[in-house]
């Protein structure tokens, strides 16, 4: 299963997005969440009842406040728009991780976009935190055991999209995968499979 995680520090302000490809035991998701002291955890109310992941989260983080929000707040399109509006300029950290305006690799972060939308909506409506345009430092985390390929490298190596197609897109043309690594190795037949493959290309195992 795949889990999208969004973590927000309101004091920085700093938002971290992480896409986890996990087993049925949810070990990687719980381990990634355990890296921070978490006062509140946001879950989807419509699917969380009876979910093993939800039960594991509540048991593991029993000192944290667990809030269940309607599925409508987990909107990947609204989340992507909101992140583009709020994100500040890119920045590289000492450990090699990077923050971004909005880079190529975030196209694979559809679950993270949905999680970010729910989290930022909760922070605004329930906690009173409002962020102005270009005020939020956004960082992509590859997750434990994976490495992050930055947006410029993805573009120059033509992992997901041909360089010529990127130029064409700026002029309003449709994007293409012709001649890319994605085209060369893809044998998927579903949209979900395609997004999973894209995520593994830009976040390979170490």
How would you summarize this macromolecular structure in one to three sentences?
The chain is of the alpha/beta class and 206 residues long. It has helices spanning 27-33, 45-48, 52-60, 76-86, 110-125, 151-156, 163-170, 181-185, 191-202, and strands spanning 2-9, 14-21, 40-44, 65-69, 91-92, 98-99, 137-141.
SSE pattern: EEHEHHEHEEHEHHHH
In round numbers, the mean pLDDT is: 79
The count of DSSP E runs of length 2 or more, i.e. the number of strands, is: 7
**Number of H/I helices:** 9
Strand order of the largest sheet: 1-2-7-6-5
- Uncertain runs: 92-106, 166-174
Query: Which structural class matches the secondary elements?
Result: alpha/beta
Features of the shown structure:
206 residues, alpha/beta, five-stranded mixed sheet, two-stranded parallel sheet, 38% helix
Molecular structure report:
With 206 residues, the protein is an alpha/beta fold. The protein has helices spanning 27-33, 45-48, 52-60, 76-86, 110-125, 151-156, 163-170, 181-185, 191-202, and strands at 2-9, 14-21, 40-44, 65-69, 91-92, 98-99, 137-141. Strands 1-2-7-6-5 form a 5-stranded mixed β-sheet, with helices on both faces. Strands 3-4 form a two-stranded parallel sheet. Helix 4 crosses helix 5 (110-125). The longest helix has 16 residues, at 110-125. It starts with a strand and ends with a helix.
